[in-house]
Structure formats: structure tokens, C-alpha cells
TrEMBL record:
Keyword field: Membrane, Transmembrane, Transmembrane helix
Keyword Transmembrane helix annotated: yes
Name of protein: Glycine zipper family protein
Record-annotated membrane-spanning stretches: 12-31, 37-57
Amino acid sequence: MSQPGNSRVNSRLWLFAGIGAVIGAIAGFLMGAPLTIAFAILGFTLGMGLGWILPVADSSAADSAAEDRPDPTDNS
């Protein structure tokens, strides 16, 4: 099984999908009330796709970059 830390299905993906669904629902409602659910589903899938495509920030890379910098209080 895969490690939970390496999974691309994370809270950021669900956040993008939720925002896409809300924007889609608003756009569908403005175009006509019967289109609200269809546009919400479309926005959800587009948001999930966008969240999947965008690169995930690797926290270990940021930690290793911070280790390379000298400590300002280090006098040696």
C-alpha cells in the first residue's frame, strides 16, 4: 500500500474541488436554475482536475533548504 504522506488526494485537492463546485453552482444558478446542479458537478470535476494537475509543494525540500542556511546566531 502507498504511504499516506505520498498521496496526492489530500485536503488541498478537496478544497479546489469544493471551490469549483461553489463557483459552478453560482454560475449555473445565474444562467438558469435548472443548470445549478449540472454546473456544480462540472465545477467540482474541474476543480479536482486542477488540484490534481498543480504541483504539490514538498515540505521536505523546504526543510532541507532551511538546513543549508547558516544560523544567524552561530558565530563559528
